[in-house]
What we know:
The protein has about 160 residues and is mainly alpha-helical. It contains five helices and no strands. It has helices spanning about 5-30, 35-70, 80-110, 115-150, 150-160.
Amino acid sequence: MPKTKLENVVFTLLMAFVMVYAMICYNIALNVGGMSNQVFAMAFGEMVIMWPVAFILEFFVVERLSQKLAFRLVTPGVDKPAFVILAISCMIVCLMCPMMSLVATILFKNPGSQIVAVWLQTAVMNFPMALCWQVFFAGPLVRLVFRVLFRRGEKAAAANA
């Protein structure tokens, strides 16, 4: 996990990219009736807007709040690290999914007077995908890339030797 401000920025940028890209692909696939190779290219159009929004929300709002909520369920240093990471990841999804669904609803769905209904439907459709993607794919992938970038594995191995 990130230990410095720079590491935190890099980690958050990576995680936001992986999560946002997957969720945009998912939503486009829902809108066009299924997944196709074209969906992967179409997603980059929305990435220009949604990735910075996700980064700003996560970095300045959600990060601290999700940790406070997670630490009501688990205790770092007492509970297994995997449970701490899982609790934080789940809380981030619980906070980010409704926020990002609202942004996507306003920017891309033209909800008109049905904004609350369209937003709730969008959030409900996105939540299971976001949670599963975060827990099983994005989280482990980004933590692996982060460890490679910042050589966490080598430092831990050297310290234990």
